[in-house]
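Task: sequence design from structure.
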């Protein structure tokens, strides 16, 4: 079966990215194309994108889009069919997609309502003869698209709402109900009302035909108060249409076989030793035991605050750590303090560097992902791809993608990493002890690395799951 899907999102690689959402939105069209699904991506034309759309075809004009007119331009970038919503009064600003120097843009509710409004219009009327069978909305920024389809008409299109991170909910005061073109009759706890206000994410969850999250375990976790962030009741109520579909990674971009220096593979792993030596030389570290890497936002959600307590014992046992990331100032400082405390064993680079990230996965022995919650996670998949053994909290997509090196899994030859629970410093310390022991057993370690590198982490399986979901909606 085949069809047309309008993917609606605030980010898309290679145009704009602040997190994993952009990777998913950018990867899905190519993954679905071999299965017969024509996916186009509708995103805002932020300031940095406006020069890229010069020369594109204008395919839509909207006179009244929350304070000004909007135009949609169709073009192709990196094989993606992009529909860029150009509304300068909403998107032509210095700063990021959601915030400027002073914090979040105060008109974010209207900015992303405009994106959703255009998506619903395309669902009803099509654009340049292209009428979507499915509107696929991603996170709160597109949450009003299914709502507008439900309340203003969506033609024959079905709607899918994907939750990438339920912690971000797109809250707005109730006084904006009319301004956001939402019906007062729907302002109740079973529909739009959310703790006295409006949540764009809840609006999508209660109106979409299907709901997906980015891993099966996260789908189950969202029904519990410790993970549902206040929306667990909505997820429970709609459980019959909720499905968890794992993300994948771009295996052409994240490929140890294709790295420009020290390439290696599961069948020819020697290059990893050379990459490790080069990485140690680059950072001035000398690590006799396992060299762990951390490539992460430096936040409590990612469990970075656990490292100062858990790492000293690991370092005393011969381990070392290289950290790459940026985030909360106190955690950046805590990581730099570790580097000063353990010179030659801990190194830190504050910021993000894509090339360095690749070198870290190439040369690291293990990657630490101690997240308190993780909807899917791509970091552990990069680790698997590069034979950099994931040490992960047993939550969300981390639990779904890493097979713990338990005695049973080791005996079966199936283990791919180390998982731990609960997410606290003691459990992480215990996991790191296991890592040291595994690394010391060279035969077991070699098998672990080979298992990791042969795990399927691409988009093929996930694309088939999305195609089946779309087929079920259009049947």
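Answer:
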């Amino acid at each position: 079966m085949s069809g047309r899907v309008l993917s609606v999102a605030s980010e898309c690689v290679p145009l704009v990215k602040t997190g994993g959402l952009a990777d998913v939105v950018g990867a899905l069209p190519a993954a679905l194309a071999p299965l017969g699904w024509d996916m186009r991506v509708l995103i805002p034309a932020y300031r940095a994108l406006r020069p890229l759309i010069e020369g594109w075809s204008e395919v839509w004009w909207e006179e009244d889009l929350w304070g000004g007119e909007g135009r949609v331009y169709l073009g192709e970038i990196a094989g993606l069919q992009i529909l860029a919503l150009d509304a300068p009064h909403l998107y032509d600003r210095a700063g990021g997609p959601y915030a400027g120097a002073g914090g979040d843009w105060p008109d974010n509710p209207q900015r992303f309502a405009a994106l959703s409004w255009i998506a619903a219009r395309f669902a009803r009327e099509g654009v340049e003869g292209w009428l979507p069978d499915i509107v696929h909305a991603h996170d709160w920024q597109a949450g009003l698209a299914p709502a507008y389809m439900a309340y203003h008409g969506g033609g024959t299109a079905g709607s899918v709402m994907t939750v990438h991170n339920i912690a971000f909910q797109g809250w707005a005061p109730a006084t904006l109900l009319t301004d956001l073109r939402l019906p007062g009759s729907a302002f109740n706890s079973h529909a739009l009302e959310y703790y006295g206000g409006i949540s764009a994410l809840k609006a999508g969850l209660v109106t979409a035909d299907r709901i997906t999250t980015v891993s099966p375990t996260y789908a189950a976790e969202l029904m519990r108060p410790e993970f549902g962030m206040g929306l667990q009741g909505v997820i429970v109520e709609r459980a019959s249409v909720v499905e968890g579909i794992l993300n994948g990674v771009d295996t052409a971009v994240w490929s140890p076989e294709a790295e420009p220096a020290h390439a290696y593979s599961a069948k020819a792993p020697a290059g990893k030793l050379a990459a490790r030596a080069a990485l140690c030389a680059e950072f001035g570290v000398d690590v006799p035991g396992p060299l762990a890497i951390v490539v992460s936002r430096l936040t409590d959600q990612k469990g970075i605050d656990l490292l100062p307590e858990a790492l000293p014992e690991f370092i005393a046992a011969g381990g070392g750590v290289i950290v790459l990331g940026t985030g909360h100032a106190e955690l950046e400082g805590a990581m730099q303090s570790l580097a000063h405390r353990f010179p030659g064993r801990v190194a830190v680079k504050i910021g993000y560097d894509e090339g360095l990230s690749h070198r870290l996965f190439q040369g690291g022995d293990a990657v630490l992902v101690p997240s308190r919650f993780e909807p899917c996670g791509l970091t552990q998949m990069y680790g698997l791809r590069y034979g950099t053994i994931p040490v992960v909290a047993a939550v969300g997509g981390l639990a779904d993608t890493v097979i713990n090196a338990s005695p049973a899994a080791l005996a079966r030859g199936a283990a791919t990493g180390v998982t731990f629970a609960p997410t606290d410093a003691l459990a992480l310390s215990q996991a790191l002890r296991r890592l040291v022991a595994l690394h010391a057993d060279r035969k077991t370690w070699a098998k672990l690395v080979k298992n990791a590198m042969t795990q399927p982490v691409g988009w093929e399986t996930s694309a088939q799951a999305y195609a089946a979901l779309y087929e079920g909606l259009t049947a």
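The chain has two domains: 3-248+459-474, 256-453.
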